[in-house]
Design a protein that fits this description.
2 domains; mainly alpha; Rna Polymerase Sigma Factor, Chain: A; globular; Arc Repressor Mutant, subunit A; 8 helices; about 0% strand; about 210 residues
């Protein structure tokens, strides 16, 4: 029985967050090669690298903390059990996020959960000073509420583009559609977000 690594115990274990450059990708591929040989320690390293990235992606798709953790662990279980199926035709991150996306859609099809941004606890991250925290907190609430109004497919492309720095071609591989479809989803998502954020800002200022 696979026991998941304890992130709380090892926040300061010296494992750096993955970058976006070739060196980081080579490190991740080396970890996957070890995972293919059954090296549990290297799987735990990859788990810690991807947990915060997948959490952020899934939390905006699923909007329910318990479900996020379930889908995240299911995704990384596939990485552990089916590492051999990665053929190198895409980036490793694209392959992993694609697994997460498909599992999230399946989970949503099985659930009928209320949307409540207050139920989501994102991983701790050092933030700005106290003088900026209130404004940022209000912006995060508005953004979370606006994202919650989008479809899961639109939330996914927004999240991958703006928070994971993926190009349209890579997003297309993750979500399994042509790049032109990604562009179309982004167009409608941005337009919808702009309207929703304007409405939420107006409501927050007490406009009728």
């Amino acid at each position: 029985m696979l026991k998941w690594p304890s992130l709380k115990k090892k926040r300061d274990d010296g494992v750096a967050a993955p970058g976006r450059g070739p060196a980081s990708e080579q490190i991740e591929l080396a970890l996957l090669a070890s995972i293919k040989r059954g090296q549990r320690a290297d799987f735990e390293t990859l788990y810690r690298l991807y947990h915060p990235r997948l959490w952020r992606f899934l939390v905006h798709m699923l909007r329910h903390g318990d479900l996020v953790e379930e889908v995240l662990n299911d995704t990384l279980m596939v990485v552990w059990q089916r590492a051999e199926s990665f053929d190198g035709r895409s980036k490793l991150s694209t392959w992993i996020f694609g697994i997460a996306y498909r599992k999230a859609l399946k989970a949503l099809s099985r659930q009928d959960l209320p949307v409540d941004a207050d139920d989501i606890e994102e991983p701790a991250d050092p933030g700005p000073g106290p003088e900026q925290q209130l404004g940022l907190a209000q912006l995060r609430v508005r953004l979370a509420e606006a994202l919650a109004e989008l479809s899961p497919e639109h939330r996914a492309v927004v999240e991958l583009c703006y928070f994971h720095d993926m190009a349209y071609g890579e997003i297309a591989e993750v979500v399994g559609c042509p790049p032109e479809t990604v562009k179309t989803r982004m167009f409608y998502a941005r337009r919808r977000l702009r309207l929703l954020l304007d409405d939420l800002a107006g409501a927050g200022q007490g406009e009728p």
